[in-house]
Amino acid sequence: HMAIRELNNLHRLWKNDLGPVARNKREELWNRFQVATKQIHDKKNSYIKNIDSIRIQNLEIKSELITQINTISEKKIDSHSKWQESIKLVEEIKNKFISTGKVPREKNKQIWDMFRDATRNFNKEKNKFYKNLKDLEKKSIALKVNLIEEVNQILEKEDWRSYTNRVKEIQIEWKKSGRVSRKHSEKLWTEFKIKTNNFFEKI
User: How many distinct helices (H) and strands (E) make up the chain?
Assistant: First the structure.
């Protein structure tokens, strides 16, 4: 832009401010000035053409990155560790998207909207998984607490010896009662183990 402004100033100077030259030199000088002007315009046009192709290329890169985020969202990710990998990967893709240069101006809003929708959708799927995981954990904790309580009640019964099979069943049910986070699992497991050990030691 600066070069073109400067060139326009030179044209104004040529026409208005600089005095006339000898007639036999006039055409030759004007032609040389025109050739130099054309070279500058050619360079500008080449630059603009190049910028357009770079921006189209950037659009393709950004579209591909959006597709990658959508593909991750559509996978049925079913474990905490896989979700952590996916979160890290999406973060890398987002950084690539943001650091990729400009796209053609008329596509700018559309590509940003698509990017925002893709990341929003990913976050929705992630939150759904973790909400479901919390709900499952609550159920598992409740089951485990009930099993501990049942062993406790058996230990207090006068005929506790007749409950050997039931206590063995409770041990199997414990294994099937679902996983809980380490924060809860160690405390619950220790309590359960002490109660069942007490039962079998008494026998």
Answer: 6, 0
**Cβ 113 vs Cβ 129: under 8 Å:** no
Q: What is the pLDDT of residues 44-73, one digit of tens each?
A: 777 677 788 889 999 999 999 999 999 999
Please report the sign of the dihedral spanned by the C-alpha atoms of residue 130, residue 135, residue 141, residue 143: negative
Q: CB of 196 within 8 A of CB of 167?
A: yes
The whole-angstrom separation of Cα 136 and Cα 141 is 9
Residue 104's closest CA among 48, 188, 147? 48
Cβ–Cβ < 8 Å for 155, 195: yes
pLDDT tens-digit readout, 120-141: 999 999 999 999 999 999 999 9
Q: What pLDDT does 75 receive?
A: 92
CA nearest neighbour of 175 among 147, 194, 135: 147
Q: Which residue has the tokens 């240069």?
A: 101
